[in-house]
Design a protein that fits this description.
31% helix; 255 residues; 7-stranded mixed β-sheet; disordered N terminus; alpha/beta
Length: 255
Amino acid sequence: MTTTHIPTAKPLLDYDAEAEVYDASRGGTPRAEAAAAAVLSLLPPEVATLLDLGCGTGIVTARLGRPGLRVLGADASHGMAAAALRRGVPVARADAARLPVRSGSLDAVSAVWLLHLLRGPGLVPAVIAEAARVLRPGGVLVTTVDKDCAHDVGSDIDAVFAAHLTPTPSDASGEVEAHASRAGLRPGGEARFTGHGQGRTPRGSAEALLAGRYASRIVPRGITARQLAARLELLPDQDTPRPEPTYRLRSFVRT
């Protein structure tokens, strides 16, 4: 796989700028290890090649290794790809919907915390179809689903956000399954893992909201983002983390 730059849809955040702080702001090593273990649990033992789409800084990708498995990464952001390279991850700078990979050449593709970010029309089905294209018959796609929903743990923060949630998350499990079916992928297994370090605080949630980190989940209605953040700032125990989320992974098999 060669390093290729292909223009992609505008991201919700500037991930080139975000790369330097990304890992520390999203649970770091414990969350990455949990995610990698869950992905590996859904890969059959004969899988020998894995492409991690939207690999970001490579913090998860670098932990996907096991004997006999070759792992590659792909990300559209220069900053993220550079961080993954520093971790020793072989990475291509590429759009997940237009991969520089031969059809039917891979045993597995993973997409961890990617589909929920794809808010443009047709982006999720395009990425799933591209994953199906590069998989061999019997190959496996493993992806997180319902990512933003996982953060609803019934806390006071969730009560503030409740009226402002995105009505149609792009990684809803049922929608992902429908897109996968149209791409020639049948449902496989499922796994869950804890988002270590992702228990939100009111102060941190207000800061994340204003920084645009909740753009896939929160759409303020009738008020500004600043006004919504102000409501979070009124909650008690501003720096006390609420419960951690539990993320969901699903696998799909190329027919």
